[in-house]
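Morning!

This is the sequence you dropped in the shared folder:
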Amino acid sequence: MLSNEKQKNRSEEEVIKKLCMANGVPYEKIAQEGSSITSLEMFFSGFPCMVGLSFFPRLSQLTIIGQNIEYIDGLECCPLLQELWIVQCHLTEISGLQNCLQLEKLYLYENKISEIKNLDLQVHLEVLWINNNCITKIKVRAVSPCLDLNVNLQKLNLSGNKISSFKELSQLARLPRLSELALKDPTSTPNPVCLLCNYDTHILYHVPSLQRLDIYDVSSKQIKEAAESAVMKKRMYYNMRVRTAQRKLAETRLSLIERKKTLSQSPEECIKTLTRALKFVCTLHKMFFCSSSKKLQDPATEHKVHAKIEALRKRLKLWTRRLDEMEYTVQFLLMELESVGNIRLEEGCSTDPWFTSCCDLLLSRFSPSDYKTYGITDIRVDRVIRIHNSALRLCFEDKIHRLLANEDLSSQNYRRQLEYLFYIVDPEKCEKDETLQILQEGFKTTEQQKAMGKEGAIPFSNSLSLNEQSRIEYTLRQTSQGHTKHSMDTIPFRHGQVNVSKVFVGKSMPIRDGEPVDRSNYPGVYSVYRSVETNPRRRQWFVFDHELVLPEYIIYYEYITQVNYCIHSFDYPTNDVALDKEVLNREPVLKPQPKLLSLDDKILLSVARANVLSQITVLNLHGNSLSNIKEISSLTALRHLTVSFNEFTHLDDISHMPNLEFLDASFNHLVTLEGLRGLGQLKQLDVRWNKLTKVREDTAVLRKHTPALLKLDTRNNPWNRPEAVRMTILGHLMNLTHLDDVLVAEEEAAEAVQMTAGSKINQLQHVGFSVKTFLGAVLGGMMLNFVTFCVYQIADQITTLNLDNQRISKMINLSKLVNLRWASFNDNEISKVEGLDNCLKLEELSLNNNSICTLSGLTRLHCLNKLSVDGNWLTSLDVSTLDGLSSLSFLSAENNCIASLHGIQRLRSLFELYIGSNQISTSRDIYCLKGLTNLLILDLCGNPLVEKLENYRIYVVFHLPFLKALDGIEASECESAKNMFMGRLTTDTVAEKLGHSNYTKITHLNLQSCSIRIVDLSPPELFRNVRCINLDHSNLTSFSGLIHLPNIKALCLNYNHIESILPRQKTQTHLTSRQILYSKVHSSGYSQQSTSKATRDTGPTGSLEPLMGSLEVLHLSHNGISNMANLQLSRLTNLKALFLEGNEISQVEGLEGLHQLRELVLNRNRIKTLTKNSFAAQALLLQLHLAQNRIRELNHLDPLIELHKLSLDMNKLQDIAELDKLEALPSLKELSVVGNPVSINKFYKQSVH
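The structure's back. Tokens below.
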């Protein structure tokens, strides 16, 4: 021993001598000169261990390169060290720096370090180079912080490592001064995450302080803004999809409660129907075949009853499973969001080649003989999901390429060693959690497997039965222990799922008997296998390297037995409604039973088949219409009570029943369990499918009044916080053995009790310090009606606050949280927003599911970016509050009572608006959104407007063309919207133009130059006081939309394209696509035409129905009119002034019905002659203007006996004799013929006189 120590000392002495020689320090004088040395260097060899550093207490810089050092040692005596280089050595971990508190620069690249840790004391660290190591994760905030306290870190190089997840990069946002980051510098291999889509964008968004990323300068403001914009759009997109999925789930549940869906659309309706039938059949079975009287027993009928019960249970299980699968959708979308689209799950169908391939693969590896003992004859694929994980695929391919480069493997041999193998999740673990973990991060490493007590490899198999063995055994064991969830089926493991992975088995060998499966026992191989004796090709594989496994598919399947083969023989997907009906109609067929509305002693005795009330121990009141049962209070011996499928809202009548052991109150309308009292012997309670929401209150009732409760089923209730229901119940009802048909494990119960014993208020987290503190003391089961809290020393450091579901009724004592940025108060009892006046940095606030009636209290939150107030009692949007929310880009106010969007136009920065399930009913509210040009996502689902407004989507998209998505669907109807609504004059347009909607006060409507093509002012009674309308300079071709206005006197339609009062009738084949679109719109013109022959007749001799009886003045100048007869002007029987100046008219006609006409203007047309019928009906005409035409003769003017003024300027009158014809106009007082050839004759005036 002594010699070994001497040898070690001599060896260390030699190392120290080499160190001195390399740095020019005499070894003999090291004791004297060492204290003055501040810098040491050692390159390439001669320094196998860190010794002798105690001689250099003032050392500030140490450089060690190319040595064989495995761990850091000897720096305890170097407290002044500021810069440390240990490069190209063999370090496996970061350690030994606990005394180097002044360290500013640390270079540890090209080592074998797998984790960043033990740097929490280096608070002055500015530079960290740890590239070319084996790091896979960045645990910035963990139980033992690694970089969390390195707030001064400015330069970080992580290139050449194995970081593959965006989640890890997001952790770097906690380093406030980080300015340079390298993950793929040119001298190193890039991290796998660098090869994923949106890598740069993700980094720049989460670490905005960066000035340089890899080799690029990213200090430009434009680059940061572009990254922020890209991430924001992706967040909006996924947020919209998640909300859409959640809304669809909520709508489905709501529609089931209200029975708005048919059986083919509603899983819950099917469940209710099947459960009702099942309960009834079971009751018949107990009544007739479990009776002691043999006379009642018929083997054939009993067999039918058993068969029907079994069939009903199978159908019920199928629908329950379908309903559970809906919950996966949101999880998948959130996973896709977190991975920035690099993880995606694709649902397959029978037309996809890969779907068929998966089905064939499963069938080829299924052997009915393996399941013969269970009566299984076949297997059916229900569903296949394809996994797209870019990070795992890149990792897998990179690993394969490296193997191909390092080993003598040809491409052909490599493919032969690829297998598609099955993996089934651990049945004793949560199936959903493990599946999601595999989808996100892949399979666990061998070290993680061993840490969990498993073998040091990942288990796979090429045989379904081998993989299923553990699940089958576990399920059967659970069933034997009374796990009713599985015992309903003769094959409790009937439904399963398997993960299909691409596996590179590589060089492999059989497992040696007696040796554990561990890589150390099988050097040089990638996998080992165990073959089945009866069939050597069927193997169970164990793969050592998780990077050689790529999960690609999840197959959901169902085992088929001879009993259920006829039910499931349909092609995928099955006709579920038909199957349900087939089962329900099986013998014995259920006959409708009269429903009980009330009870009395006689009915009770009849139902229970008893003679005396005191003898009744079992009472079944299933499937009636009872809402109260006060009469059962006299049933003191009652032990078993069923009241399912009734109308109960509370259970007050079921109290003080000392012998009651079983109570089934499922499928009712219970909103609370508050009424239960004195049920000391109750052991089993079923309250499924009710309307329970408050788990704490209901659990407190059960804890107090049902102390013997062992089995409780609360599924399918609309709990406020469904994710916390199970732990809350188990934490208070500690005697439960089964909850929601699942056996309660001891570990789960202990965890729930421990959680309940903690604080009632969630812990706070804040950036910069790993502080976990509780706000409030343990309340020991006291009812919290009023919560106050103080945070004292850490108040100004808190940035995140989560107080969801804490029964808070007031928001007070928040004034010290001056740096608060994110706060959540969901699922409380808050009625007023208050106490946030000092939280001026607040960016996100969530107040969902409270009792808030107004948004007042948010006025000072100018930095608020995101606000969610779903599920409150808001009736309107407070304008004064919205004025202060200038930065708000996200607003969600779903499930309130908001009737108007007035005031929303103040939120100019709004990008997302979710305001579904409110009371918005008028199209005018859409106009409130027209000024929000930044709005990209709008959700109005569930508002009356959606159903009430014709062509709702097209209407909204037209008025809000900047929208990218409406109600969770891409707003792609822009072209259709333009065709249908562009230039359409509606009541909403009038309100927008005039700034109010008080239509009855409008007398003059001036809407010139508005490009109006269609008039749709309905209902016309709103405009009963309008006297004058000016629509000059528009695009009208008719004014049929105006004909119903009751009191209009003057109408100006100059500079349009009027062809007729009503458009001429066309057959459908002659209509243009645009006209067909108009014809579908109410009051568009085409749709308003009369269908009678008289109305369709547009000829001058047709018998036309008079229109617009109040109209007196009509302006139709400059409309391009060429045919006056087609105008149908004769229908305007009360018209007194008609202006047709500047058209293309060549003949005066179509005025037969205008007997009241006083003034007619036809200047600047192409009139050449006047016919006999031109003015036949205008005996009262006073003024006639025919200037600037082509008239040569003045014939047929004699009907104008009252004409006072005649203008014939700029025509082609040449002969004075034409003027003589005017003698037929006895009342003519004013004549003008300026610009005619006849006016050259100096005697023309004399001829007129």
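Headline: The longest strand covers residues 376-389.

More detail when I'm at my desk.
O.
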